[in-house]
Amino acid sequence: MANIDILKEQVLETSIYSYEQGLFAGTSGNLSVYDKESGLVIITPTSIRYDKMKIDDIVVIDISGNIVEGNHKPSSEWQMHCEIYKARDDVLSVFHTHSPYATAFAVNRRSIPLILIEMVPFLGGEVPVAEFALPGTKEMAIEALKVLDNKHACLLSNHGVLTIGNSIDQSHIRAEYVEDAAKIFHYALNGGEVNVLSKEIEVKMKEM
Ligand SMILES: [Zn+2]
Fold it and tell me: Is 69 a catalytic residue?
């Protein structure tokens, strides 16, 4: 399965890089990519530190969560990943972090409003907050899908960040931009008045 091997490499490389960036800490956060051709999901394992992760630690599952390849169990959030792939055939990669600035707003249950121009192309506008759901359940995906709509990212109440994309690179850069926007929103709130970009500007930018 040559294609699967390439995707496993991508999952590993992006996981290690995300750990170095501070998007992942310890064993928290997870990412996956969906191979449409085989119907398989290549996903990070559960409970393996990112700084110790090796290629054989990456897990391949089918869309129902059965292990096809790998020595470990898939991420405990595999159901969230698979439910999103089942519901959205435009999504080929799911990325989940507990990155600190964004997760702080997930604890506040406060969406990140459209405060930066980059948020339009990279995030599809504001970053909404999904209703709370227990970790490791399908409900995480169900609640996230309700707010994602035409957005590329959302906050998971009292938990973290979820981004979607058509490739690992896309879901990863979106996770980076969520944390970047959250950090800037945090500083802007501390500095005083926050000016949110208007719906009109958002619409114009989406037409550009
Ligand atoms: Zn999590």
Answer: no
